[in-house]
Amino acid sequence: MFAMMEASRQEALHFAQDPATGLKAVIAIHSTRLGPALGGCRYLAYPDEQSAIHDAMRLAQSMSYKAALAGLEQGGGKAVIMRPAHVANRGALFEAFGRFIETLGGRYITAVDSGTSSADMDCIAQHTRHVTSTSRGGDPSPHTAMGVFAGIRASAMARLGSNDLEGLRVAIQGLGHVGYALAEQLHAVGAELLVSDLDAGRVQLAVEQLGAKAVPCADLLATPCDILAPCGLGGILNAETVGQLHCAVVAGAANTQLADLAVADSLQNRGILYAPDYVINSGGLIYVALQHRGESLTTITAHLTKISERLTEIYAHAQAEKRSPARVADSLAERLLYGR
Ligand code: NAD
């Protein structure tokens, strides 16, 4: 356990259990060097405790990197609640989790993540103020989409020499909360949309409302386009799929798009510009972090411009150093966190 913590430089791991509600939770605090650790709470069934702990630590580290590169005075953390097979009272379980967070005295701030909702955050909020994305807070997805849109413009500028997206073919995988909002913004500036989603209804809506062209899910990655925007699940770029791509840029909202960093090198070798996912999709984090601090919507929207500035900086380093933007982003984040 300690070796695992040391390998990814985790500050602390906290555990809580509450037999009355069935709560079994892990909070990984990766770093509080730049501020309190902020990161979502997952509520998922895990095969064993080890995989839950591993997930919390891995995600907490990526939150530290994301917050650092987003220019936030915020550290990185993540919570994982092991979802029981049966739960008698979900609200009571999340209230117990709220009491757990309160014991950490503000070193960890929670948020919505896979398997949790703003209603769960409302239950947590009954016992601690160290919680974001409650039903009063609003959905961060439109802000994530705004950041991705700005990031796509910066990426087009770096790779294609212009940030004018009119007439560019953008293939979007996944038309959920972020993907659909992104599609709307791209449509508004005259981009040509090629879209897929597991939910045929979402695709039909984009076809009717945005003039998008529907592409079968299995064909989207190989579809010839200028920009590929993965906005579905993570892990879609691997040794096999990289060879299928026919695009100049990969820039989308999905978390952990790369199976590993070697995939980033393959993209680089193929001349495909990759927008590091945790940089381009940081709009949602910027929204919840600044909203939690009581900042205005104007300040939050202004802060979103840091995403395209950071990407432009990363691309300049990547070009000068002949390295993948993904590797450059990690190095920059580590410099901000550890001063090296
Ligand atoms: P969502 O669940 O609302 O939407 C995801 C959509 O992708 C769904 O409609 C789903 O049917 C579709 N999808 C999944 N796999 C697919 C596939 N193989 N082919 C085609 N469609 C597929 O999720 P979201 O909130 O829009 O988030 C999208 C991605 O962005 C996720 O990876 C998420 O982790 C990441 N992200 C989201 C936010 C946010 O603010 N919501 C912030 C940062 C990162």
Describe the structure.
With 340 residues, the chain is α/β, with parallel strands linked by helices. The protein has two domains: 2-61 and 72-124, Rossmann fold (3-Layer(aba) Sandwich), CATH 3.40.50.10860; 141-338, Rossmann fold (3-Layer(aba) Sandwich). It is built from 14 helices and twelve strands. It has helices at residues 2-7, 49-69, 90-103, 118-124, 141-160, 177-188, 200-210, 239-242, 261-269, 277-280, 283-292, 297-303, 305-321, 325-338, and strands at residues 12-18, 23-31, 37-38, 41-44, 75-82, 108-109, 169-173, 192-196, 213-214, 227-230, 249-250, 273-274. The strands form two sheets. Strands 1, 2, 3, 4, 5 and 6 form a six-stranded mixed sheet that branches. Strand 7 (169-173), helix 6 and strand 8 form a beta-alpha-beta unit. Helix 2 packs across helix 14. It starts with a helix and ends with a helix. Nicotinamide-adenine-dinucleotide is lined by residues 140-141, 144, 173-179, 196-199, 202, 217, 231-234, 253-255, 281, 284. Residues 140-141, 144, 173-179, 196-199, 202, 217, 231-234, 253-255, 281, 284 line the site of nicotinamide-adenine-dinucleotide. InterPro entries: Aminoacid_DH-like_N_sf, Glu/Leu/Phe/Val/Trp_DH, Glu/Leu/Phe/Val/Trp_DH_C, Glu/Leu/Phe/Val/Trp_DH_dimer, Glu/Phe/Leu/Val/Trp_DH_bac/arc, NAD(P)-bd_dom_sf. Residues 138-339 form the Glutamate/phenylalanine/leucine/valine/L-tryptophan dehydrogenase C-terminal domain. Catalyzes the reversible oxidative deamination of glutamate to alpha-ketoglutarate and ammonia.
